[in-house]
Amino acid sequence: MAEFGIAAPSVKVAGDKPATATGKALSVVALRKTYGDVVAVDEASMEIAAGEFVTFLGSSGSGKTTTLMMIAGFCEPDSGTITVGGRDVTRLAPQKRNLGFVFQQYLLFPHMTVQENVAFPLTLRGVPKDEIRRRVGETLEIAGLSRFGGRKPRELSGGQQQRVALCRALVYRPPVILMDEPLGALDKKLRDQLQVEIKTIQQELGLTVIYVTHDQEEALVMSDRIAVMRNGLIEQFDTPRELFERPRTPFVADFLGAANFLPGRIEQHDGENTLVRLTQSGTLLKARRHDLPSGTDVKVAVQPGRLRACAADEGFCTGTVETATYVGTLVRAGVRIDGGQGPLLRLEVPAGRGPVAGERVGITADADDVNLFADEQAG
Ligand SMILES: Nc1ncnc2c1ncn2[C@@H]1O[C@H](COP(=O)(O)OP(=O)(O)OP(=O)(O)O)[C@@H](O)[C@H]1O
After folding, report:
1. Which among 66, 212, 218, 230 is the best mutation to test ligand 1's pocket, defined by most ligand atoms within 8 Å of the CB?
2. ipTM of this predicted complex?
């Protein structure tokens, strides 16, 4: 077993880049699981580097938990392989895979103190008592729980109990820690705080984490890479920035940023850009270059935060503001495009510069923020 110590090499995550890899921590090849007619996970494949924080993100029933449970060993795949640190663990029992788990339910032993709970995985492995005391002390300190070592779980808040569960997973330094909606039972403020704490510990200790959530913001805040899942398939596996700015499918564009979609047809290509004739307004829009031929029907996708209001008739289209809602630092506006029967175009603009209901506005966006999808890809 690897020596435990908080002096593990510090892994700095630069911007949205994956953490520095020191090798492959885990790989999954063509993993598949069916329940009768339901394909819960369909040929999922991915490689996760040591020190990476990877999130499975998707709506309910998309296959996130099933994938995680197959990695954990609690659910047997129909086919495919799972490798941890180069070792094929596909048919091994969960306890032989040496992975750490943190679930939404804390699953702490109620009759044991915090110290005893955290010590449990080490006791199970026959680690000497002195060594256990040292490791438990270090781990509780990392999570800011040193003062609570003698308490029973019921004497702790939900957030503190979840920190204890995290410590119990950390204490034997497994090569990979699996977390299934660990913050799901906590209120928003505590969730925000624990997101930062977990991320900090993960980076400082260089841990490899696989995390399941259906919360887009949580995934964007915490992850080096996100696997967006839909109907058992991994739709895109990428950095948060790539997913947000370069979604490969309309589903990803919608799921991560609630994109606006506008129908149009490619008119021509112009260097770095593609010109699209919008169906509703008949006007021209400059998008990021897409190699579809002229005349192709497309869906134009732009995130609400990447649209700007400008003077009427100066943008790529003009319309009337129907709704303008103040939400703290932002104004969310809904604009009815001239000539259009479609849904309102949604804009998010800094409060103070927001348009007001009834105002005539032009709409503009940088071409690089406008993505195109072939029409048959939509939906
Ligand atoms: N034990 C089971 N028996 C039958 N069907 C199952 C079982 N477990 C999962 N499924 C089905 O497999 C699909 C994927 O479920 P899974 O729990 O992996 O989704 P999820 O993305 O984790 O959803 P959630 O966010 O709701 O937990 C769903 O259609 C689900 O109904």
Report:
1. 66
2. 0.96
